[in-house]
Design goal:
single chain, 402 residues, mainly alpha, 19 helices, globular
Length: 402
Amino acid sequence: MHAMSATEVFLLAILIIFTVPWLIWRVGRTDYWAPLVVVQIMGGILLGPGVLGAIFPDYYAFVFAPATLSALNGIAWWAVMLFVWVAGLELDVGEAWKRRRETGVTAGLALGVPLVAGSLAALVMLRYPGWRGPEGAAWQVVLGIGMACAVTALPILVLLMEKLVILREPLGQRVLRYASLDDIAIWGVLALILLDWERVSRQGGFLVGFAIATWAIRKLMRMLAENDRWYVGLIWLALCGFAADWAGLHFMVGAFLAGAVLDAHWFGEDRMDRFRQMLLLAVMPVYFLSTGLKTQWGVGGATVFAAAALLLAASVGGKLAGIGIAGRILKWPRSDIKAIGWLLQTKALIMIIFVNILLDKKIITNETFTALLLMAIASTMMTIPVVAPILRRDPGLAKRGF
C-alpha cells in the first residue's frame, strides 16, 4: 500500500480545512446568522482535538501530524500578520479627532463598561482552578479576559456592515470610528500585559527605533508608486513583526503597529478591500484551523460552557450598557443606541488573535481560551439577526451621521 508523503498529508489537511466549512455554510445556508468566517472558526473547533480528535484519535494523529502542523502554523502566522496589518491600515484616527467628543464618549463607554464587566467575570472564574496559565499573574488574567469581553473586531465588523449595506453610509462610518479607537486600545493593553520588566530596556529600544523608522517609512512611502508601496509595506510588516517579537511584545503587536502608522489611501480603498477579501478566502481558514486545534475541555465541557455563558453575558450586557449611557449623553434616538450597541458586539478575529497571544504566553489556559472562543463566536453570530430588523424598521437610521 502506498504510504502518503508529507506533501500529500499536508494537501489532505488543506482539502479538509477548505471543504468542510464551505459545505456546512453553503448547504446549511447559514449566511444570515453565521457568515462563512464564523463557520470556518467553528469548523476549526470541530476538526481539532477537542471534538473529532477525541472521537477519532487516529484521524487526528494522521492528518495533523507534527510535520503538517508545522507547515500549517507557518501559513497561519503570516496570514494573521497580514490580516492585522490591514486592520491597522483601516484605522482613521484623523476622522475620530474631528469628532472627538462624540467619538471619545462613545468609544470610551463602549470599551470601559464591558471591560469592567468582563474583569468581574474573570474574578469569579479565578476563584476556581484551571483558568490561569502557569506564566500569568492574576492581574494579567483579569485584564486580558476583561479586554477580550470589551473589544470590537474591526475587520469582521467591516464585513458584516458590507453585508448589511451600511459600510459606506454615515452610520457605518460612525461605527468604524468607535471601533477604531477600541482597536487601538486592545493593542495598547496587550503591550501592557506582555511588558517584561526583565527585558524592558529591549522593549524601550524597540519603541524608540520604531518611532524613528516610522518617520523614515512614511517619507519613503510618499515617494513611491502604489505598487511599490504594497511591496515595501510587506517588507515593513515583516520587519516590525520580527522586531516586536525580539523585544518580547509579540509579533502581532508589531504587525498592528506596522499598519496603524501608514495611511490607507496610499494603498487604494478598492484594492485594500480586495486584498482583505483574498486573505479571508485563501489563507485565513488555515489560521482558523490552527485556532480550533487549541480548543480543550480539560476542566470539563460543562464548566467551559458555563464560563463561556458568563463571559457572553458580561460582554453583551456591558457593551449594550456602555452604548446606552453614551446614547443618553449624546441624545441619540433609541434605534441608534440599539443598532450601534449590537454592531459593536462583533468580536471573532481580533479577539481570537488577542487571546491566542495570551495562550501562547501561558497567561491563560486552554480552557480559558476555549471559553473565550465560544463567547466570541456567539457574540458575532448575534450581530446580523439583531441589527437587520432594526434597520428595516427605521430606514433613515443608516443616513444619520451626527
